[in-house]
């Protein structure tokens, strides 16, 4: 199977500090792939590098058969990639409806309305709060809105950066359940960066472990979940 997204020998720097060290990673069509690692391992940097900011210094990033390593960020987004960034970054003064419309760039009114109804089916709480300002939503609702906004562009690849950050366990289960349902019903491909290794590996088909900017382990998610070194490093002391 040809990968939808492929990173080969990718390095990235912030000034003189090397954040990614020869990363090799593949995401196949229809997969949920998770990238786990400690805080500061370079997970969010990898997501941002895929989107072109920071730019990869070495290596290649290939999406849907095309080299996007040097493609401007706005062009990458137009090719069917959407990102729900760490920290949500919704528009707090805009309503839920307006926030969702911001994600529907390039879609006509009918198509945007249809996609919005699909988002509401996935996250019914958002439909109840259509006219409410984004900044007045709970943390879980803001995360749902950030994911919903990303889905409004009808992406082929969804980049999810720390969707569980700061959320109660019940809300985390709801959001991860929605991602699983979406993947199963539409075949949406997902690359998930997550500190909650237990939830991420339960959700994903495959996983990669990132340590200090380098991939140290990769395999089927169930196999990684069962490995003693993974359990000791990321899962001990509760889920």
TrEMBL record:
The keyword GTP-binding is assigned to this record: no
Superkingdom to which the source organism belongs: Bacteria
Range of residues in the leader sequence: none
GO molecular function: ATP binding; ATP hydrolysis activity; branched-chain amino acid transmembrane transporter activity
Residue ranges of every copy of the ABC transporter domain listed in the record: 5-237
SMART domains per the UniProt record, alphabetical: AAA
Gene Ontology terms describing biological process: L-amino acid transport
InterPro entries per record: AAA+_ATPase, ABC_branched_ATPase_LivF/BraG, ABC_transporter-like_ATP-bd, ABC_transporter-like_CS, BCAA_Transport_ATP-bd_LivF, P-loop_NTPase
Pfam families: ABC_tran
Homology family: Belongs to the ABC transporter superfamily.
Protein's name in the database: ABC transporter ATP-binding protein
Lineage of the organism: Bacteria, Pseudomonadati, Pseudomonadota, Alphaproteobacteria, Acetobacterales
